[in-house]
Structure formats: structure tokens, C-alpha cells
Design brief:
The protein has strands spanning 2-3, 9-16, 19-27, 33-41, 50-57, 60-68, 74-77. The protein is an all-beta fold. The chain has a seven-stranded antiparallel sheet, with no helix packed on it. A hairpin with a 2-residue loop joins strand 2 and strand 3 (19-27).
């Protein structure tokens, strides 16, 4: 995790069993961070690996782009 001088979490790195993620945050006017995350999942439960980009506005996922192993890519958006 990389913090700004005032303690705001600007960049986060996460590793869980079969998942890796990098998050970058910006400050919103509401005080809740707006984030972009790049996530990669290893194959699991019969599914192949998945990589994706997720956009979060004040804690809510509002857009995503997924690339699935051996399947079509997926793009989605929601209003924030």
C-alpha cells in the first residue's frame, strides 16, 4: 500500500490465494475514494483464468471489462 503524506491510500497491492489486484484511488468530493482496479484470477472450479479492469465510484462498482480464458470478453457499466 502506498499512502499520500496525509495517509490517503493512493495505491494498493493485494494478493489472495489465486487472485492478484492493483488499485489506484482518487479523492472524490464526498470523501469516498473513486478507484480503478486491475484484477487477475487463476483458473478455478472448471473456469479458466479471468483478468479485468473495474471502476468504482464512492465504493460502488460502476464499470468493468473482463477477459475470460476461452470465452468472449465482457464490458458492462452502471450509473453511479
Amino acid at each position: 500500500m502506498l499512502l499520500d503524506e496525509d495517509g490517503f491510500e493512493r495505491i494498493g497491492l493485494k494478493c489472495l490465494d489465486e487472485v492478484g489486484a492493483i488499485e489506484v484511488a482518487g479523492r472524490s468530493r464526498s470523501g469516498e475514494p473513486t478507484r480503478a482496479a486491475v484484477v487477475a484470477h487463476d483458473p478455478s472450479g472448471g473456469d479458466g483464468c479471468v483478468v479485468g479492469l473495474y471502476l468504482m465510484d464512492r465504493g460502488n462498482e460502476v464499470a468493468g471489462f473482463h477477459v475470460f480464458e476461452e470465452r468472449q470478453a465482457d464490458v458492462w457499466t452502471e450509473s453511479s
